[in-house]
From TrEMBL:
This is Caltractin, putative. The lineage of its organism: Eukaryota, Sar, Alveolata, Perkinsozoa, Perkinsea. It comes from Perkinsus marinus (strain ATCC 50983 / TXsc). InterPro entries: EF-hand-dom_pair, EF_Hand_1_Ca_BS, EF_hand_dom. One of its GO terms (molecular function) is calcium ion binding. The keyword Ligase does not apply.
């Protein structure tokens, strides 16, 4: 399995919000309004998209072309972010519920999962799904959920 690219001087922190237009024009070295495939891949990475070489070649280039313009690039960033969610963004959703150790009460998550409804009014999760989710990152006492472990579990499943 290919590993996502890492390192490089253009690495950004998860807290940095980048405007895709600015990134596009920064990487459009010859200012022709299109990116080369190498520029495309690096610009996606700077926008927080983590792809393996295979994903980039077999999915992104096929769907958006090897020389995207600004519109295709913005679309690619949006689609790739949906396909490969950023764990830090997911973790941030739990911040109001998280204690200083990065954990939330099991009862709190249980309550939220049971209250979650589809647009039709049906429960979003079955009893089995709730049990699986609660057991995914529970501590040894069974009273708290490690938010990092929980988010990683969600992203992998």
């Amino acid at each position: 399995m290919d590993e996502p690219r890492s390192g490089g001087s253009s690495e950004v922190s998860p807290d940095t919000k980048l405007d895709e237009r600015s990134v596009f024009y920064l990487f459009d070295a010859d200012a022709d309004g299109r990116l080369t495939s190498d520029e495309f891949k690096e610009a996606l990475r700077v926008c927080g998209v983590q792809l393996t070489d295979r994903e980039f070649t077999e999915e992104v280039l096929v769907e958006f072309g090897a020389h995207p313009n600004i519109i295709n690039f913005s679309s690619a960033v949006a689609v790739c972010r949906e396909r490969n969610p950023d764990p830090s963004v997911l973790r941030d959703l739990f911040d109001p519920l998280t204690d200083s150790e990065g954990r939330i009460q099991t009862e709190c998550l249980d309550y939220l999962l049971r209250r979650s409804k589809e647009s039709s009014g049906q429960p979003s999760f079955s009893e089995e799904e709730i049990t699986d989710l609660l057991e995914a990152a529970v501590d040894e006492n069974g009273t708290k959920i490690n938010v990092n472990d929980f988010c990683n579990y969600l992203i992998k499943s």
